[in-house]
Design brief:
The protein is an all-alpha fold and about 190 residues long. Helix content is about 70%, strand content about 0%.
Length: about 190
């Protein structure tokens, strides 16, 4: 039986190298695929995955189980690391597009199906967001704009951007968690 991610993470906090290796084996392909979709560059994506696992090892205790699944948190760390790397390299070409795919190190069929299903659920759930919330979610999570930049784009206060983003995420989380299906049956 596989250990839960949280159990492995607890072992990583105690500097258990084997637990880090197990998490790496479990998530390396997924994180690489995610980083590649943002950067469209193999070498940079490999760097990002390495940086994520270095952070995991050198900054123990940053994951909070009460705020969501470990895999979601790990993808958020990967997303933020990808954006940081792209900003360092002064590139702005990191829009995530569904048609992008990997030629090598491609995720398994199961992972691809899971990603597509999650994507469909998220797209359906986003249809129920207010227009302003949807725009902010897209700019922040899929285009990589900072909250300050979004405030500039819409010419609204930063607090308004933060509030709309927080409310949008609350609605999405409630919608996705309550049924496990989004609002398919509504």
């Amino acid at each position: 039986m596989n250990e839960l991610d949280t159990e492995l993470y607890e072992r990583v906090i105690r500097q258990d190298k084997k637990a880090l290796e197990l998490l790496y084996e479990r998530y390396e392909k997924l994180l690489f695929s995610f980083a590649y979709r943002m950067t469209k560059r193999k070498e940079l994506s490999e760097e990002i995955v390495q940086e994520v696992f270095i952070k995991l090892w050198t900054k123990p205790g940053i994951y909070d189980q009460s705020k969501g699944k470990f895999s979601s948190w790990l993808l958020t760390v990967t997303r933020n690391t990808s954006i940081d790397q792209l900003r360092r390299k002064n590139e702005q070409n990191y829009e995530i597009e569904e048609r992008d795919s990997l030629q090598e190190n491609e995720p398994s069929i199961e992972e691809q199906i899971e990603w597509k299903e999650e994507g469909r659920r998220l797209q359906k759930a986003m249809k129920f967001l207010a227009k302003e919330q949807k725009e902010i979610v897209e700019l922040f999570y899929f285009k990589g704009l900072s909250q300050s930049k979004i405030a500039e784009v819409f010419q609204i206060p930063l607090g308004t951007v933060k509030g709309r983003l927080r409310l949008a995420l609350k609605h999405l989380r409630k919608d996705l968690d309550s049924t496990g299906q989004g609002r398919d049956s509504v």
